[in-house]
Specification:
The protein is α+β, with helices and mostly antiparallel strands. 12% of the residues are buried. Helix content is 37%, strand content 20%. The N and C termini lie close together (11 Å). The chain folds into two domains: 41 residues, Orthogonal Bundle (Arc Repressor Mutant, subunit A), CATH 1.10.10; 82 residues, Lrp/AsnC effector binding domain/regulation of amino acid metabolism (RAM) domain (Alpha-Beta Plaits, 2-Layer Sandwich).
Length: 153
């Protein structure tokens, strides 16, 4: 783990809120001059602490009104079945996150769809048609809470 001081953590909190903030504004918010602030951001990027910057999308405005977590159990844990499953998952834009998990299932998927009919079609026609998939279980997200402002370190 990278050694971070309080200024580094402050920089990360600000960048988490707004990844497009200028170095000048960021420096002002964290109490540094622009040059040392820019050097710290560059170091955090070079060290891999900051992996990249992304836009936060409004899924409802994109017609994606339903978010679900789908737990998937594979029929076997051989490399071929897993490889086929992961290839199929990577090809589906509905799947925004894929986690290999420990427990009574193998993978947990985050999926976004427009409505319940689309969800049913996706589970039946896409997921359950993958040969390695033996069982799925779906949990519909009722409300997504905002992320806490505190970083976990």
């Amino acid at each position: 783990m990278a050694a971070l001081d309080e200024i580094d953590r402050h920089i990360l909190r600000e960048l988490r809120r707004n990844g497009r903030i200028s170095i000048l504004d960021l420096a002002d918010r964290v109490g540094l001059s622009p040059t040392p602030c820019g050097r710290r951001v560059k170091r955090l990027e070079d060290d891999g602490v900051i992996r990249g910057y992304a836009a936060t999308l409004d899924n409802a405005r994109l017609g994606l009104n339903i978010s679900v977590f789908i737990m998937v159990r594979l029929s076997g844990h051989g490399p071929e079945g897993t490889r086929d499953f992961l290839s199929a998952v990577a090809a589906r834009p509905e799947i925004t996150e894929c986690f290999l998990v420990a427990g009574n299932v193998d993978y947990m998927l985050r999926v976004w769809v427009g409505d319940l009919e689309e969800l049913g079609d996706f589970v039946r026609d896409v997921l359950q048609s993958i040969p390695a998939v033996t069982e799925t279980s779906t949990m519909v997200v009722l409300k997504e809470e905002p992320q806490p402002e505190v970083l976990p370190f």
